Structure formats: C-alpha cells, structure tokens
Amino acid sequence: MTAPTRATLADGRELLFFALPGRTPAPVADRRPLPPRDPCPSQLRFDRTTGQWVIIAALRQDRTYKPPPDQCPLCPGPTGLTSEVPAPDYDVVVFENRFPSLSGAGGAAPRAPDGFAPLPGHGRCEVICFSSDHTGSFAALDVAQARLVVEAWRHRTAELMARPEVEQVFCFENRGEEVGVTLTHPHGQIYGYPFLTPRAATMLQQADQHRKQHGSNLFDDLLAREVADGGRVIARTELFTAFVPFAARWPVEVHIYPNRFAHNLVELDTAELDEFTQLYLDVLRRFDRMYSAPLPYMSALHQFSDTDAQREGYFHVELMSIRRSATALKYLAASESAMDAFISDVAPEDVAARLRELA
Phi, psi at residue 120, to the nearest 5°? Predict the structure, then answer.
C-alpha cells in the first residue's frame, strides 16, 4: 500500500500527498493566517421517529462557495499563501476538511440519549483531490492517475477503519453543479462516520434476513441473478461486473461489483484494483458520452468491515445521476424526499442498452 508524504496545514490539519512512481512531493510551509480550529464543530442529534442520527454542522455555512478559477483552494499553492495544498504541484492529495461535518476522536459508537441531549460529532471528514488540473475530471484521468486515486481511497479506508471512533468509511464524489458541487476542481470526499449510516444498516438487515432464509449472501446472489439475466449488464470482465440494477431509483444508475466477495477496497488484491480502476473509468466515460455535456453524477463506494455486525456487507460502487434526458433533471420531490418512495421515469433496461451502445 502506498505510503503518502505527510504534512501539516497552518491550523494543524493533516495533509497527505500520494505520488506516481518517480515523483517526489515537495510541500511548502502553509503560511495562511487561518483561525484556530473549533474542537467540536458539529453535533449528533438522534431522531426518534426514524431511529437515525442527524449531523448538525453549522460551521459549514461558511465553506468556500464557487470561487473564481484563480482563487480555487484545491489548485497547487507554491507560495503557501493561497491554497489548501501548499505545493508547486501534486498528483493526488488528501487533507482534513476545513469545514468538517465530523471531527475529533470519541471512542465507541454513540448511544441514543434520553431527551434532547446532543452529542459531539466525532469522526473524520477528508477532501481528496484527484489531480492538480483544475479543468479535469475523473473520467479524463489516465489509468495510472486513476489507479493512484484508488490507492489513496484504499489507504484512507484502512487507516480510518482502524480508528475507534469510526464505524463506517465512505468514499464519494459529487460531480456537477446540478448535484450541488461548489468547487469545480476534480475532487471527492471521504467520511469516517461514528455510526452505521441508514442506507448501510438497511442493506445489512436485508442481507441478514436473506442469509437466514437462503443460507447465502444477498449481494452475491443479486450479482449472479443480474449476470444470468444479462439484460441490464453493461460490461463484465474476469474480475468485475457493471450493471443497471433491477430496481434502479435514479434516471441513470450503475452498480459495479467485484466478481468475488470482499468487504472493502483493502481486501481486493492488486489485479482486482487494476481492473476496478479500468472499469470505473469505462463507466464514467460512457456517462460523459450520453449527452452533449458531461453527465452530473454521484459516486458512492459502499464499504464494510469484517465485524460480526457487518460480515454480510459486499463492497460495491453505486453511480447515480439526476439527469433523465438531455434537457431535464429528476428532482427528489415529495414522494422521494418525504416518503423515501422513489418513482423512476425511465426503464433500467433502456438505460443499460444505451450505456452498452456507448462502449
């Protein structure tokens, strides 16, 4: 696993440089007059009507919002006065978010309090920059650069999973203003949650029930069914499969599964990581060929630990877009937002056929 070069930002946040072979990071001192960090920037509040935790992070109201390109905080800052990345250049970097939803160590997973007592929002929020090129995208990366991003995801997954305050590690990307992106520089984020997120908990509950009824892993069986059907498979290699799921919620939705069971990126071997990188790039490039403009999307890496509570969790990636046509977006209105009852405007089989054509 790649060992990053570590540095410290002016307010004490950690910065990690991941480099391509033959390249050596050269960070400079961060000389910005940053204010002291809030030791407790967020709260956890328990919603008893749903049994879910809500993160209250008022500090994020002040986060950077659509700066002009020459003031991008993710571009290299060789003077140490202008950027979150004080260096003349970089390949891939990860740093603690200046406006985190979660921060600080807090031991075991939080317990639901009696009454209305908030808890400190312990955990970790990181930003990962895929490239120093402000105008690029993940789909535009070459294979070696994309593979380095995957290695950085893997490194951060391993390190964050080892923290006692982290229950789940979530690597993700939002791309496009249509899904709320406020910094156009190609980047993603990595969250270390102190609790199991609702989506992950629901999937694991379904998987546990499936194991009791059928004696097998839910995700493994779903993958086998999709492959046997074939109508929604976009691409299949020796080690990975990409398909539109049978009950897709989003206008464009693709899942990528390894062809063998693994909980997370850390459990994949070198050949699998190489092939995953290439298939991930393939799917994103098909996305960008769907319409005249790049497709806005969200990328979610579902990862699990090997603990008893998460033993059935199967690593996979879900890619989703709210664009339902060249000119129209799918808004999560009352049925989706209030009732969590998704209504899809397109047939999954039609989306899969279209994406197959774009090879």
Answer: -65, 140
- Residue 255 assigned ligand-binding role: no
Q: List, for residues 177-225, the tens digit of each pLDDT value.
A: 999 999 999 999 999 999 999 999 999 999 999 999 999 999 999 999 9
Q: Which residues pair with 243 in a beta bridge?
A: 233, 255
Catalytic residue among 187, 210, 255, 316: 187
Q: Is 134 annotated as a binding residue?
A: yes
CATH number of 200-358: 3.30.428.10
Give the Cα separation of 83 and 119 in Å (integer).
32
Kindly report, residue by residue over 268-296, the tens digit of the pLDDT: 999 999 999 999 999 999 999 999 999 99
Residue 117's DSSP bridge partners are: none
Residue with tokens 């480099």: 19
- 214 is known to lie in a ligand binding site: no
- As a residue count, the chain comes to 359
For the question of residue 155 being annotated catalytic, the response is no
Is 185 a known ligand-binding residue?
Answer: yes
The CA-CA-CA angle for residues 302, 4, 103, to 5°, reads: 55
Between the alpha carbon of residue 85 and those of residues 6, 43, 113, 227, the distances in Å are 12, 28, 39, 43
- Count the neighbouring beta carbons within 10 Å of the beta carbon of residue 159: 18
Q: Round to whole Å and give the CA distance between 237 and 50.
A: 40
Query: At the topology level of CATH, where does 5-195 sit?
Result: HIT family, subunit A (3.30.428)
Q: How far apart are CA 211 and CA 218, in angstroms?
A: 7
Query: What angle separates helix 218-229 from helix 198-214, to the nearest 10 degrees?
Result: 80
Q: Domain residues of the chain, as ranges?
A: 5-195, 200-358
